[in-house]
What does this fold into?
Amino acid sequence: MLFSDKCDQEVQHLEGLEETQLGNHKSFQVRFCALRHAMMLDGIIQGTPFHLDDLQVIADRLSHEGASFVQVTLPQLGRALDLGLVTGTFKCPSSFRLRKDSRLPSFLYSPFKELFLDDGMLKNNASLTSIRNLRQFLLFDAKRETALPEKLNLRFIEDFRLGQRTLRSVRIQTDHPVIEIATKLISIVMSRFPTELFLPGHGPGATSEGFERDEKWQFTSWPSKAEKWFPFLLYGTANMRTALLGPPIPLTKPMVTKGCLVPKDFRGPRLISIEPTAMQYLQQGMLKRLMQHFKREPLLWRSIRMEDQTFNRIAAAKAVCDNMATVDLSSASDTLSATLVWHLFSGVPHLRRLLFSLRSDYVRFGSELERLVAFAPMGSAICFPIETLVFWSLAVASIKLCRASESFRSCASLVRVFGDDIIIPNDQSFETLIGTLSTIGCKPNMSKTCYATPFRESCGGEWFNDGDVTIIRNKHYHYSGTRKLSIYPVLLNLQRKFFLQKSFNTALLLRNWAREIYPVMEIEPSKLRHLHGEVVDLPNFAYGDTSSINDVPYRWNKDYQRLEARTPVSIQKTRSWSVEDGSRLTARLISDSTERIALRDGNIRKAWRSIPAFMGLTGPNLG
It folds into this structure.
């Protein structure tokens, strides 16, 4: 059978499924199969040889294995696919049967055959379309946020503790040539760092004391380790409480941050820290100062853009053509030791003292304490910039060691760093960097470090032979049959992404599911050029073939002279400031002019909202 004939059959099969039939099913299995069916159809139209027999395999395995097939088994095959793209050799997981006389799985054999030979070797002319569609099919739910059992969470806490004890045994070779050059580099780029008085502030995150936004300004304690460099009377700003009661109680004990596990995916949670209020306040000020300095320092500006991943993604897109490798690290913040940071910043001792006065000494899990050997865990405001700076210095130093005749300026031009995402020339300097990272306790993730094949990934994007094969990820939709309003924006957000990727059948299915919850407003494709970012993010819009408000309730607002529709919007619960003393003045001096406090349990509700002008509907008479 010709491929085009098969495509026509698939189209007719999907068109035979009534929209109401798909929409009224509440079964997890049916919705999952329906979405994968739509993905198959879009893949076939785009040239990927999917077959319906594989959809039947999914249905059978779902009925026997349940949700574990979606959460564990199918993503395992997707990760094996990615590993094959990275290493050049595909190894099929044991949970999938092999095709006879082949190392490829019987399941989805035809699209796999587009990418790999039967011996598992990657084809040089692998189809970009098939790579993207097959990855989309297998990995769409791989990063879906999943709450894990308490027993499993305890295991990850124990793994973190074990990692800190292992890191404690790592001895930093201060005479290592790469570390010596990296130390000199940091001395050069940070020697002009302004250490005078800066403006601190409170971040949006929680604090270990559990204070709300207004309560954070009533400093009940101040770390004594930071008082020498950040005196309260200068940085805490004197307020009415200080005048009446004096400065807050100094904390002479080691600073303790609160360890917290947040949902990530089926493989496990993500461990972050919740800093004490005063520490968070000072760390935010240091973060702003570091961000400003990175923009002003020429050497750093050549390699680092702290506020924009696009800089790295552009370099990664051209990495194969430019012979560059992309490096990824496992648990980078948990393996970057304080000892290493102390040595690297030896050329700027005053800055080093400031940074170490702002790091916590212990992390608390419940009633138990664990000494923090890493410089700072995720959750500390100074974690990301210092992590970026350290890995940048090691990458540039690796190039300099291998290209002694080149200047620091030319070496820095070859590097891109964003956190633990590193792009470096694919030559001896890459091997030098990998070796150095291993000696200092960091863990290069070789399953995501790309250098041997035309596949590259960095900052959430993937490319093959400079062609974009980045996929759409589902993090919040769980295929449940519920009609909760909170699912409505999730479905339409996914719908817009698939529509822009030209996966129209998948987008249509997601739009129909959203319609079960509430009417959907559509935008003509011809008018997409008029859209702005704020419009794309509206939770009540879908991209489609018409421009109308359909059966969405609407009205003409005489007071504002505008057309409004009643649509689901995010409503954030708020309350007024509970403190009226000098702490409110303190907040205003730090440029926090918010008069109401946003609570953490906001939700989705229906409300009247202006319809954008591009909808083409104006005036009170709509005809």
Q: What stands out?
A: Confidence is low (pLDDT under 50) at residues 1-26. The longest strand covers residues 256-265. The chain is about 45% helix and 15% strand.
